């Protein structure tokens, strides 16, 4: 693009019969320099004429007004000094030289003033454009840097992250998300996310899209969170997830959403394991003491409210201390586990076996009379006697027991029931010792 100063100077020389046109500027140290000139003659004049031209330039810069002067060099010349403004400051001085044959007309001066204003405006616009271009370059660099950082973050995080448009089509997905669902990232772009990874419930029944939180978020632009849901892999298997759906522009569902999800398989297993150990005896796999009391209290409540039958049996393993002292605690554990195994295989699914202490067990028999429980105890004893006949262990497997049948008019608490059954068990143990 041709320099505006040079172009303006040539036009004035060509159309208004000027001898030459120059543009000068002054720096902070009042040093005058030539920015553009149509003739080298001006630079000679600038440094001659006893410094008159420099003085007029400085006066014009200070005043901001046009100046007309006639100076004698090799031939008389008329000079027009026109300030070119940049905002409220004089940026340059346009100097036009004419031969002194005729006075410079007011019309021509007005043209020069207009030209100065126009070239100043164009120059301001060009400077502003250069400023804008610089800002755009800087902003573009910042955005490219931010995009690069975002891309690094998307690739680095272990959580799955993907975005969808207003129609639920996937617009981007990070490697972690693609890996978790067994797809290649580029194969997912443009596909409906619900149909890809959220189409069914854990029991394989269809999951209607209108019930999906993503569908709701696309309607109202709100943030949604779910702690336990199911996503599906490409191979047809599923896994538990927790996720949060966030609109790209809050309150504007048309912009789409970003979904961040996490595979909670391990944490769910850990939670289930904690719950298991909270209610289960880890060595035998039956309910623990706390669970035994909770279940007993519920069954007692059913007896009083619905008149259902209920019997309980308190069991104490015989000779556990002697086995521990003689053969070690590991062998004692084997004794307990074998008796527990036989108990579990002899009771119904609705019956509940709980380990109340080291060698003590409580069995709750809903809907049973004492005679029914006696039959179960006999089955257990028969199995243990059959095992002992094999001679696999140097000790016998036996237990003492006490059965208590709870009637509908009973006012016993769970603690009372366990205490009375325990006393019956103790009587049974003493009886066995007397017989021996």
Explained architecture:
With 436 residues, the chain is α+β, with helices and mostly antiparallel strands. It folds into 3 domains: 4-131, Beta-Lactamase, CATH 3.30.450.40; 160-267, PAS domain (Beta-Lactamase); 280-435, 2-Layer Sandwich (Alpha-Beta Plaits). The protein has helices at 4-16, 41-46, 52-63, 106-156, 175-181, 185-188, 193-197, 213-220, 265-279, 289-306, 320-327, 329-346, 370-389, 414-435; strands spanning 20-26, 32-37, 67-72, 76-86, 89-99, 160-164, 170-173, 224-232, 238-249, 252-263, 310-317, 352-355, 360-366, 399-406. The strands form 3 sheets. It has a 5-stranded antiparallel sheet, sandwiched between helices. Strands 7-6-10-9-8 form a 5-stranded antiparallel sheet. It has a 4-stranded antiparallel sheet with strand order 12-13-11-14, with helices on both faces. It starts with a helix and ends with a helix.
Which stretches of 5+ consecutive residues score pLDDT under 50?
none
Instruction: Specify the oligomeric state.
Output: single chain
Classified in CATH, the superfamily of the largest domain is Reverse transcriptase/Diguanylate cyclase domain
Radius of gyration: 49 Å
Sheet having the most strands: 5 strands, antiparallel
**String of helices and strands:** HEEHHEEEHEEHHHHEEEHHEHHEEHEH
Q: Report, as a whole number of angstroms, the end-to-end distance.
A: 121 Å
Percent strand equals 25-35%
Domain count: the total is 3
CATH class of the largest domain: Alpha Beta
Residue share in helix = 40-55%
The CATH topology assignment of the largest domain is Alpha-Beta Plaits
Strand element count? 14
Mean pLDDT: 87
| Strand arrangement, major sheet | 2-1-5-4-3
Looking at the overall shape, the CATH architecture of the largest domain is 2-Layer Sandwich
Shape: rod-shaped
SSE-based structural type: alpha+beta
